[in-house]
Amino acid sequence: MRKMMLLAAMLAVVLVAVAPALAQDEPAVVADAKAKTAKAGAAEAKAPCPEGEFVEAKAGGVVAKAPCPPKPPPAAAPAAPAAREG
User: Fold this and answer.
1) What integer pLDDT is reported at residue 17 of this predicted model?
2) 29 and which of 10, 34, 40, 64 could share a cystine (Cβ 3.0–4.6 Å)?
C-alpha cells in the first residue's frame, strides 16, 4: 500500500512539473516574401522601403525604425568609340 501511495505522489509531482510546458502554444511564424513582412506571435517586421520612409519592426512594446538605404545612382552610359581619321 505504501509503494502505491509513493508511486501516486511521484506521478502527481511529475504532472505538476510538466503541466506548464504542455500548456504553452507554439507561436505561429509567418513570413511573406511578396509582402515583405514577417510575424512570429506578437512580433512583427515589415520591410517595404517606400522612398523617404523607414523600415519598422515591433516586438511587444518595443518599436525599432531604420531609414531605407538610398537608391544606387544610375549606371553610366557606355563610352562612345573614338572616331578614326583616315
Assistant:
1) 83
2) 40
